Each structure stands twice: as structure tokens, then as C-alpha cells.
Amino acid sequence: MPILEARAVSKAYGGFLALDNVNLTVEPGEIRALIGPNGAGKSTLIDVLSGRARGHAGQVFFQDAEITPLAPWARRLKGLARSFQKTSIFPALSVRAQLELAARKAEAGGDVGETLAEFGLEGVAERPAGAIGYGDQRRLDLALALTGRPSLLLLDEPAAGLSFEESMKLAKALREMANRRGVTVLLVEHDMEVVFAIADTITVLQLGKVLAEGPPAQVRADPRVVQAYLGSAA
Ligand SMILES: Nc1ncnc2c1ncn2[C@@H]1O[C@H](COP(=O)(O)OP(=O)(O)O)[C@@H](O)[C@H]1O
Ligand SMILES: [Mg+2]
After folding, report:
1. CB of 11 closer than 6 A to ligand 1?
2. How many CB atoms lie within 10 A of CB 158?
3. Is 22 touching ligand 1 by the criterion CB < 6 Å?
4. Which residues, in sequence order, are CB contacts of 20 under 8 Å at separation 6+?
5. CA 138 – CA 40 distance, rounded (Å)
6. Cβ proximity of 58 and 7 under 8 Å
7. pLDDT by residue (tens digit) across 116-139?
8. 151-161 mean pLDDT
9. pTM for this model (two decimals)
10. Domains and CATH numbers, the chain
11. Given ligand 1 and candidates 10, 16, 206, which is best to mutate, with the most ligand atoms within 8 Å of its CB?
12. Whose atoms come closest to the Cα of 40: which ligand?
């Protein structure tokens, strides 16, 4: 039984179809990567799933219930979370205080100390979040998204702007967190090495349509996928 399902989702901006009859099912516990050339519709799909994009066609189901009409906050209460943007970090508050504040807002218990350890943030826990390194900020973002113990996390390029080394560190933290907590993850990521390091399944979008889907080795060998990437580079 899928934890998340999009059925025949289409989304137009003016006359332009950013998503064209997309069907997607995500199984509980998996890390699903959503990849595709720039403009393929990846962020639009994340927006549809999280409830941010209004006025689309098709339906979204989460844990067997239709959530299509629900606002983002209502989806979050059900356990479908998306990452905060970097701007959600209050720069003057300490890393620990931010996590405590988020946990209180979500009325979630949970051990902030444990979360700090999980994301390698113990060493910077007492520092103002605005003063920590960018890689630490990205991991704090992830930790914040996880307050309230969501069962599914939507992440749109969580490693954007990070060095390769930092991206891999974030991917590893994400993989371990998902295994430990049993959280399902759907993430958009452009670095293929990062994708192949953590994804159980890959969905490839191109021009608003699902071009290919399957385990990493299969997707990597798919001539249509190779063509789509070469096409976008040309
Ligand atoms: N708010 C918007 N208004 C008009 N066009 C948009 C808007 N958001 C996205 N688009 C267009 O929809 C297409 C898909 O965008 P997006 O989902 O951001 O792609 P991706 O995340 O895969 O790069 C692009 O052609 C983009 O220009
Ligand atoms: Mg995008």
C-alpha cells in the first residue's frame, strides 16, 4: 500500500503545462529521488504534493486518504512535511533553541539532544544559527522539518549550494535518519552521485511527464534518461 500517491496530476501556468498527467506512488520507508532537467516540473510536483500549488488537476492521496483539498498546514498535521527554506532559520537564536521552539510549536515531544546528534549538530548547538556554516544550516533545516515526527518528508534540493563533500554528508545523515525513524523521503536532487548514493527508487521527469522510474541501476542505464540529460545540456 503506497504512503503517497499522485493520480493524473496536471498543473498549468497560463497556457504552459508544467505537469502533464503525472502518476506517482511512493512506498512507505523508501527514499525516492525525483530527478530531471531544469524546468521538468520537479518543484511544481513537490508544491502539488505539499499543498502549496493550488488549482491543479488530479488527486493526491496520503496514507489512504485523499488530501487534495487540504492546505499545507493540514497536510503537515497528518504527517506530510516539507523542508523549511533557509529563511525560516532565526539567525540570532541558537541551534538548540530553534529546535526546542520548533518542537514546542509542533506540540511534539522528542529529544532535541538526540536530534542534534543525529544531524551532527552537537558541536554548534549553542551557537546562533546565523553564525554556523552553510552545511550545518542545511542539516539544521532538515532537523527542523522533522520536528513533529512526520512520516513523509518532501525535500526540494536540500543540498543546494553545498560542496560535494557536504552534500554527501547530508545524504548520509538523511539515509541514517530515514532508516532509524522509518521516515519516507521524496527528494529532488540534481547531483547524480548523491542520488545514486541514497535513493531506493528514482523517478525521472521530463517536460512535465514521467519519463522513467525504477531502481538506480535501471534508470542509469535507460537510454531515454541518458538522452534527456544530453538533450538538456545541448
Ligand atoms: N509560478 C510560475 N509561473 C509560471 N511558470 C512557472 C512557475 N513556476 C514554474 N513555472 C514553469 O514551469 C516549469 C516547471 O518548473 P519547475 O517545477 O520549477 O521545474 P524544476 O523544478 O524541475 O526545475 C518551468 O518551465 C517553469 O518555468
Ligand atoms: Mg526546482
Report:
1. no
2. 22
3. no
4. 10, 41, 207, 208, 209
5. 24
6. yes
7. 998 899 999 999 999 999 889 988
8. 92
9. 0.92
10. 1-79+151-164+184-234 (3.40.50.300), 84-149 (no CATH)
11. 16
12. 1
Q: Which of 13, 24, 45 to mutate to test the pocket of ligand 1 (most atoms within 8 A of CB)?
A: 13
Decide: 10 and 58 in contact? Cβ < 8 Å: yes
Whether 39 lines ligand 1, by a CB cut-off of 6 Å, is yes
What are the tens digits of pLDDT across the range 27-50?
Answer: 999 999 999 999 999 999 999 999
**Helix H or strand E encompassing 7:** strand 4-13
What is the three-class DSSP state of 84? coil
Region for residue 207 given its phi and psi (left: phi exceeds 0; alpha: psi -120 to 50; beta: otherwise): left
Which chain residues have CB less than 5 Å from ligand 2, an ion? 42-43
Angle formed by the axes of helices 134-145 and 164-181, to 10°? 20
